[in-house]
Amino acid sequence: MSNESLANLLKEERRFAPPADLAAHANVTAEAYERAKADRLGFWAEQARRLTWATEPTETLDWSNPPFAKWFADGKLNVAYNCVDRHVEAGHGDRVAIHFEGEPGDSRAITYAELKDEVSKAANALTELGVQKGDRVAIYMPMIPETAVAMLACARIGAAHSVVFGGFSADALATRIQDADAKVVITSDGGYRRGKPSALKPAVDDAIAKGAGVEHVLVVRRTGQEDISWTEGRDVWWHELVDGQSAEHTPEAFDAEHPLFILYTSGTTGKPKGILHTSGGYLTQAAYTHHAVFDLKPETDVYWCTADVGWVTGHSYIVYGPLANGATQVMYEGTPDTPHQGRFWEIVQKYGVTILYTAPTAIRTFMKWGDDIPAKFDLSSLRVLGSVGEPINPEAWVWYRKNIGGDRTPVVDTWWQTETGAMMISPLPGVTEAKPGSAQRPLPGISATVVDDEANEVPNGGGGYLVLTEPWPSMLRTIWGDDQRFIDTYWSRFEGKYFAGDGAKKDEDGDIWLLGRVDDVMLVSGHNISTTEVESALVSHPSVAEAAVVGAADETTGQAIVAFVILRGSAAESEDLVGELRNHVGATLGPIAKPKRILPVAELPKTRSGKIMRRLLRDVAENRQLGDVTTLTDSSVMDLIQSKLPAAPSED
Ligand code: WT7
């Protein structure tokens, strides 16, 4: 990758200092970086002491057989005890753990004492179904409290859960059940989606019909659909089995390296990878980062992460991190526009949410809907805003801070992956002078850098590949059932370093900017240009709400830049505007980055977790048959985009 073109294309001069009152009382101060640098393992051993161990670990890291790490290996703990019981024992049983907000408007507050009873009953129920320590349980659920209860119940009895996002198909569920060899599936009759009940149980029946052998299906009643099919002996209602159980359950202590969960990520090629996370190290880093990056004060904060529990964000920052820290949080079942486009802001106002964690795709959607919508609600309770999932365009960052954060709150752009288990690179809200669009620095105790093709660390101002240079507590331990693939995928590109698969650059101050997946980097006339930077340049134009950029094969330049843009509400599509946008990119990034074609579209193809599927746009731009569209939220989007395409590419 040629460094000079990746580096310093995008100029961002805006800076935002931490608010003085937040900095004065911050959970973590600048000193943490120094302490972790002086003694990284000592620093993590200290963070592990935030947890309650049945047997305190004396070892921190065993890296004698890289890349297979063991953290806190001689320690024993129960993860569910740490997330629930210990808060009750500390006198916080009456504190609300979860404010549940259903899509139809129903709500429920669950205290830590109630959560302890629910988790204990569910643990007893799973035991009655024959689930034992070391087994796997699949969880295929909507966003309801029972999902968190089910996960914690598995953790409590030492069974690894494999949560499969409720929007996935029966096929996807079947392959995941089979790969993990799950004994039980926990599901519900359905959930509410865009104002209607949406069934889940039929997909489980289908998955089993396709050969996914499980002994039992445990079914939560959520929507009360009547025509639900039932297999006697195999299917069991949650309310019939769980509700009658004893609320007493003694948590057993498991080894720190006992499997906690498997979560599948679908790469661009091959079958989904079952990412394995274990107990002590994972919980240590999930809890520490949640405490440090959100500055969580469990007595007073109301925290809300809008992700689905089916993604790693929901695992680490709805279930394990916040609950280990004794937080009070909001859990919302539905979509941001049901029944109206102000729903999120209504929820922030209703519960007095102080910390909000969401994704760039949602932020860009809110920008598109207009500033007047959040302006109708009282958002003054907010004090920290977070972003995760994709690079956040500087313009979206500034919009988020201004329109949601009242120009007052820090915005923390958190870089991490399913594989890293917890946050790795992020500003600290009481410490970092923020730069819109940059995740900035590795967190205390984390070692990340940017290297070139030959694995040499690039100097400030250089660009290349993001790597992690030291093991970290919440790192994946392997790919379930496939150690070789674990080595090949993450540890073979650069000797001794974890290859994240993301392009990145370091700016003049050494701050890290994520540039998207390396597969998405374009090569134009011998220059590496990041799709992220061209997209951010487009989004910085007042007429553009969202942009997706791909490199399409081109006879003269190798690849040519093709941009798909969604215009803001009032902007009219015209040739003049397209010309203006090209020039705007040219002026922002330099002439080399001017898109050859810019196509205004109504929607962009996205995965169910909200990431833009550039692969499909590349197919369109290169006039190819579309590749696999099964992970798209809405496949009709591609028909619309294809119908927009002029027969022959227009030259300028
Ligand atoms: C990939 C991991 C982390 C939980 C949700 C996604 C991209 C994630 C950022 C960020 C730039 C980001 C990367 C990464 N990504 N956060 N703050 N800035 N890129 O988990 O599905 O495993 O995806 O998401 O490309 O590798 P995931």
From TrEMBL:
The record's account of how the chain is modified after translation: Acetylated. Deacetylation by the SIR2-homolog deacetylase activates the enzyme.
Sequence positions that bind Mg(2+): 539, 541, 544
GO BP annotation list: acetyl-CoA biosynthetic process from acetate
Cofactors, names only: Mg(2+)
Domain AMP-dependent synthetase/ligase: 90-472
Alphabetical keyword list: Acetylation, ATP-binding, Ligase, Magnesium, Metal-binding, Nucleotide-binding
TM stretches of this protein: none
Modified positions (N6-acetyllysine) in chain numbering: 611
Gene3D superfamilies xref list: 3.30.300.30, N-terminal domain of ligase-like (3.40.50.12780)
Annotated AMP-binding enzyme C-terminal domain residues: 533-611
Keyword Nucleotide-binding: yes
Residues that coordinate or bind ATP: 389-391, 413-418, 502, 517
EC number: 6.2.1.1
Residues at which CoA binds: 193-196, 313, 525
GO MF entries: acetate-CoA ligase activity; AMP binding; ATP binding; metal ion binding
Catalytic activities: acetate + ATP + CoA = acetyl-CoA + AMP + diphosphate
Domain Acetyl-coenzyme A synthetase N-terminal per the UniProt entry, residue ranges: 30-83
Any one annotated GO CC term: cytosol
Keyword Nucleotide-binding: yes
Role this protein plays: Catalyzes the conversion of acetate into acetyl-CoA (AcCoA), an essential intermediate at the junction of anabolic and catabolic pathways. AcsA undergoes a two-step reaction. In the first half reaction, AcsA combines acetate with ATP to form acetyl-adenylate (AcAMP) intermediate. In the second half reaction, it can then transfer the acetyl group from AcAMP to the sulfhydryl group of CoA, forming the product AcCoA.
Family membership noted in the UniProt record: Belongs to the ATP-dependent AMP-binding enzyme family.
PANTHER family associated with the record: ACETYL-COENZYME A SYNTHETASE (PTHR24095), ACETYL-COENZYME A SYNTHETASE 1 (PTHR24095:SF14)
The protein, known as: Acetyl-coenzyme A synthetase
Species whose genome carries this gene: Streptomyces indicus
Name of the gene: acsA
